Amino acid sequence: MTLKNFLKANFALIIGLSLPVILVLGFLLASHIPQKLDTPPRYELVFSASHYDNHSPFHIDFAIRNQKLYMKLTPRKEQEGIYVKELFIYNGQKGSVRKIDYLLPQRLQNQQDDEMPVAEFNDFIIDNNSRSLDGYEFVLGSYRSRGLLGEIFGSHSGRYVHRVKKAGGGSFIIPDYDNESSYGNFNFIGWITNSEKAGDPGHAQ
User: Fold this and answer.
1) 186 burial via Cβ count (<10 Å: 0-12, 13-18, 19+)
2) What pLDDT is stored for residue 205 in this prediction?
3) pLDDT of the residue at 197
4) Is the whole-model pTM more than 0.90?
5) Is the same domain home to 150 and 107?
6) Residue 193: which of 146, 109, 127 has the closest Cα?
7) Based on CB atoms within 10 Å of each CB, which residue in 4, 74, 77, 93 is the most buried?
8) What is d(CA 45, CA 43) in angstroms, rounded to the nearest whole number?
9) Degrees, nearest 5: CA angle 9-15-17
10) Are residues 98 and 28 in the same domain?
């Protein structure tokens, strides 16, 4: 059978096999083109994500006071399970995310809620406006499956796809930190406006 006859006889099968591949390639191309059309965010994004912890002595929340990062600690009740917030920094220039380990006090100064600076961020000025100084805003993503390739290779897990986006400009995906963290409970904190002048909290762990 000649190639021409083979293609003619199996035209529907060839189209059926090729279409999913074309769709996947088109999706990948559409996802990455916007990232090449603009300069990545200049300012680093600080955010938190929650995970269940049955051993932490405190409920933990974060807030910005006078452009500084504070943690609010509430004593945990006996037999109470809680969600602990982990700190992350997204660097758009590098396209990476790093986790920041912060120290907790052994006990509170009083038996009620207590609020204190996060020591690992003492040198940083944080702007909690939703829009950064260079025009980027955080866009909360929805949960997505791993798609066709994930189905083909046996992975049924997914992730939350969050972005930073500039009006009329680039759109950059915030990558996974690791396999365990999908940022399902993503909390925007703010933008570091002086990271070029201060040290790196990612190495002060």
Assistant:
1) middle
2) 35
3) 60
4) no
5) yes
6) 127
7) 74
8) 7
9) 110
10) no
- My answer on whether 70 and 31 are in the same domain is no
The answer to whether 198 and 124 have CB atoms below 8 angstroms apart is yes
Instruction: Give residue for tokens 């049924």.
Output: 156
Using an 8 Å Cβ cutoff, are 153 and 112 in contact? no
Output the pLDDT for position 108: 65
Whether residue 134 is found in the same domain as residue 167: yes
Contact between 141 and 163 (Cβ < 8 Å)? yes
pLDDT block averages, 10 residues each, the chain of length 205: 61 66 58 60 93 80 94 81 86 93 75 80 95 92 56 52 86 76 76 76 50
Same domain assignment for residues 81 and 116: yes
Tokens of 50: 């929650």
Do 10 and 75 lie in a common domain? no
CB 58 within 8 A of CB 21: no
Domain that residue 65 falls in: 44-203
Q: Are residues 8 and 96 in the same domain?
A: no
Q: Into how many domains does the chain fold?
A: 2
